[in-house]
What we know:
Elements: E1 3-10, H1 17-27, E2 31-42, E3 47-52, H2 55-66, E4 73-76, H3 82-95, E5 100-102, H4 120-127, E6 133-134, H5 138-145, H6 152-163, E7 169-172, E8 183-186, E9 191-194, H7 206-219, H8 224-239, H9 257-271
Parallel strand pairs: 1-2, 1-4, 4-5, 5-6, 6-7
Antiparallel strand pairs: 2-3, 7-8, 8-9
Helix pairs in contact: 1-7, 2-3, 3-4, 5-6, 7-8
Amino acid sequence: xxxxxxxxxxxxxxxxxxxxxxxxxxxxxxxxxxxxxxxxxxxxxxxxxxxxxxxxxxxxxxxxxxxxxxxxxxxxxxxxxxxxxxxxxxxxxxxxxxxxxxxxxxxxxxxxxxxxxxxxxxxxxxxxxxxxxxxxxxxxxxxxxxxxxxxxxxxxxxxxxxxxxxxxxxxxxxxxxxxxxxxxxxxxxxxxxxxxxxxxxxxxxxxxxxxxxxxxxxxxxxxxxxxxxxxxxxxxxxxxxxxxxxxxxxxxxxxxxxxxxxxxxxxxxxxx
Length: 272
């Protein structure tokens, strides 16, 4: 069992952010540890507001985990502010050697901004160069490159531009394509396409889940292409067992709850 770090924000409803990340890591048989960057006032209907921590609070969490627990991989999600991004980048530059997955979370699916617009340049110049793999969706790729990204040919153009910023791998996710959900992985030499059909579901947290799955798989020794393929399959499976917990969007079914519930009932029967 490996320990996998997520550096992200809190969705109190459990659909995205560190709670989704931790469930994803657990579903892959690993142990998740988390550093909180910001909390949100959020439910299944949408994000009402978000409240970032101080950079010092974020770094002290990182220091505490680093001095105690061997970490096999990490992912970043919602960073929140430019100051936090700077602090996290400085910390990673000093301490990080293992795989790092950067999910450039900029806007919630509800449309609420989750990152200061003026801090996007910090992400481009300091965070992306540290990444083993970055996982932007089409709107995030468009924001980071300053170009429209709506087609597969534009995904290739975006991958080329993003690769020039320093990551080893670029995964441009095609969930916002009009006719498919095909993803593109680029390693600086080869374009590799991961085919996928669209599922018309009302959910969120797929990007968090995808990046957390890639991190835990790479931390377990899988190379990027295999990790991406397996992570995509996991997200698809989680979308097939979604949960209705509130009035708004359904949540991904990250964990095999039926199996766990059956085991609990079996234990309960033994006790009686």
